[in-house]
Amino acid sequence: MVAASIYLRPIRLRLFASLREQAGWEQQDWAWPDQPQPPTPEQIWRSLGLTGSLDELRIAVNFEFAGPQQPLQPGDELAFLTPISGG
Amino acid sequence: MGPGISVQVQLSPGPFDPYALLASWSAGQAAAAECHFVGRVRPFTAANQQLDALELEHYPGMAERQLHQLATGQAQHHGVKAVLVHHRVGVIAPGAAIVLVAVAADRRGPAQRCCQGLLEALKHDAPFWKREWSAGVGTWVKGNTPLGEGH
User: Fold this and answer.
1) What pLDDT, in 10s, does the model give residues A20-75?
2) How, if at all, do strands B6-12 and B82-88 pair?
3) Which tens digit of pLDDT belongs to each residue from B97-123?
4) What is the CATH number that goes with domain A4-81?
5) CB distance B127–A87 less than 8 Å?
6) How far is B122 from chain A (nearest CA, A)?
7) CATH number of the domain where residue B119 is located
8) Among candidates B121, B123, B128, which has minimal Cα distance to B144?
9) Which residues 25-64 on chain A approach chain B with CB closer than 8 angstroms?
10) What is the pTM for the complete model shown?
């Protein structure tokens, strides 16, 4: 029997600016996990093994700001954002 | 968006003339009051070194969306008629325009408050990141200077 999770689209991860350079990648797909609850940004951040606290970052899901515990859906785009410095 | 509010947002990968944009935008306004802000790249870094260039990275898709949401929200909150936001991205020379915010309203109060409110909102809630280039070294800028700085 094939696990149902392989049919679910992965989550697209995006990094920018200093966080991208620190990680050495700007985007990657995170396979949908075989678990009863949908994954959260916090779970994914912990799995990446990057230095720094999630408390110091902002999170965006599908181009909107989101919280660390927001349940994710297959195919979501998740970005971890360092402090903004525009304008 | 509220009834009758015009919101124009654009990201510019190349240099722009804020006054040419303003002339075109203002010609279409029938409002009695306008407030404009033009932000330019300073010639020195946060560490007080000579700046060669400012690099402005953005999150494509989210930056435009956030700017539009922020402009619409501020326009509705302050009851103004029209908002224009033009924001540079990419590598920018010292002295060049980085952002233009223009607001048209019936009175100066709403126009000025909306212009300031929108500028502060976009500095904190639109996904842009600055990197200062000086003597061949790039340094990411951490956050924004407070509004009161320079007083």
Assistant:
1) 999 999 999 999 998 999 999 999 999 999 988 999 999 999 999 999 999 999 99
2) parallel
3) 999 999 999 999 999 999 999 999 999
4) 3.10.20.30
5) no
6) 7
7) 3.90.1170.40
8) B123
9) 60, 63-64
10) 0.91
